[in-house]
Amino acid sequence: MAYLRTECFGAALRDATKAIAADRDYVKGYYRRAEAYMSLGKFKLALSDYQAVATVRPNDAEAKRKAVECSKIVKKVAFEKAISVETKSIADSIDFESMVLEGDYTGPTLEDGKVTLEFMKELMDTYKKQGKLHRKYAYKILFDVKQMFTKQPTLIEVPIPDDSKFTVCGDIHGQFYDLMNIFELNGLPSETNPYLFNGDFVDRGSFSVECIFTLFGFKLLYPDHFFMARGNHESHNMNQMYGFEGEVKAKYTNQMSQLFTEVYNWLPLAHLLNNKVLVMHGGLFTKDDVTLDDIRKIDRNREPPEDGLMCELLWSDPQPQNGRESSKRGVGVQFGPDVTHNFLKRNNLEYIIRSHEVKSAGYEIAHEGKCITIFSAPNYCDTMGNKGAYITLKGNDMSPKFTTYEAVPHPDVKPMMYANSLLSMMP
């Protein structure tokens, strides 16, 4: 139960499986294992365990309800797979001209179809007032940013001039008002104030739409000074469970949620700062011989696989002891200081920056200063009480400096409001 609450789904899965092995009639083991499988998106396996509980306890209304909801998900996934065929992309089917601006629309408008600084300021102001971007402009931003990402490599090389500041932010997770606080503290993105947002822009927080259109807008406005890396939550599987898909459908359309998946599949997986610092969302690898060229060669235009380099870039975590262990998350790997040092030496790097984990201070320095975690969503899910943080670097020495901050107030919309209904049933 503690592992489930702390999102260590792999550890929860191992515990439940051991409990079942020790006692085949231990019903709670099947129940907890089903919840771990659900959280990992393994719906068929979850359904099997939920059904086992419902069979043993036919009068348990909660177990029966979860089995029914899980069955609906399995059928939905099977149906989507059955009807899926090779068709042209959603982006290619959008007809912008048919989208008419209603007379009462007072939100921001693109100038000649282009994002401007004035548009971005008006967009953020609209979002702060809980307004909405017109679907015509929302689709245009998605179309344009997809075109931009498809032309970029999997590993982006970012030069930072000696006297220039560069900011790296970690997970945002749909916390729009905390994103605005970062810009208040550190300045708006610009050609002289570049940013890298290191994945997990969406899910859990219920202002994910506002976050992602703000970030995509700045990417279009400053393509060479604003960078975005894919996180494990920029995927259809995660979005289906943890709220983003439901939020997009509620605020726009199902078609738009499909288009987001297309865009996310093209997000770069890592950034190389001044040829000295590698930044990825998750972490390092199960193999010792991985090079930067191996990362460059990854075919990223897909849903993240369950193993391999792409999976590990998005899902892995550091551990204090040497060596490697199975991930407590159930995906990726846990890697020790020796793994980090060997990777840095092989690739002539100084240190790595990654995100992916809540830290009470908003950041953590591990592996003798060679592995830095940055997490930028304070009071994560309105429950964790953690600070948020971001890193600033100067090109002349690349030494990380940390700025921490507390969560700011937001409208009374709870996290996970749009998440899959089965998750809301979990304790």
Automatic annotation (TrEMBL):
- The gene name on file is LOC117643431
Required co-factor(s) are: Mn(2+)
* Catalytic residue positions: H233 (proton donor/acceptor)
Molecular function GO terms recorded: metal ion binding; protein serine/threonine phosphatase activity
Which family is this protein grouped under?
Answer: Belongs to the PPP phosphatase family. PP-5 (PP-T) subfamily.
- Entries under CDD domains matching the protein: MPP_PP5_C
What is the E.C. number? 3.1.3.16
User: Which UniProt keywords are listed?
Assistant: Hydrolase, Manganese, Metal-binding, Repeat, TPR repeat
Official protein name in the record: protein-serine/threonine phosphatase
Which Pfam families does this UniProt record tie to the protein?
Metallophos, PPP5
Which lineage? Eukaryota, Metazoa, Ecdysozoa, Arthropoda, Hexapoda
The chain positions of domain Serine/threonine specific protein phosphatases read 133-409
User: Has keyword Hydrolase?
Assistant: yes
On whether Ribonucleoprotein is a keyword of this UniProt record, the answer is no
Where the TPR repeats fall, as residue ranges, is: 27-60
Query: Coiled-coil region(s) at which residues?
Result: none
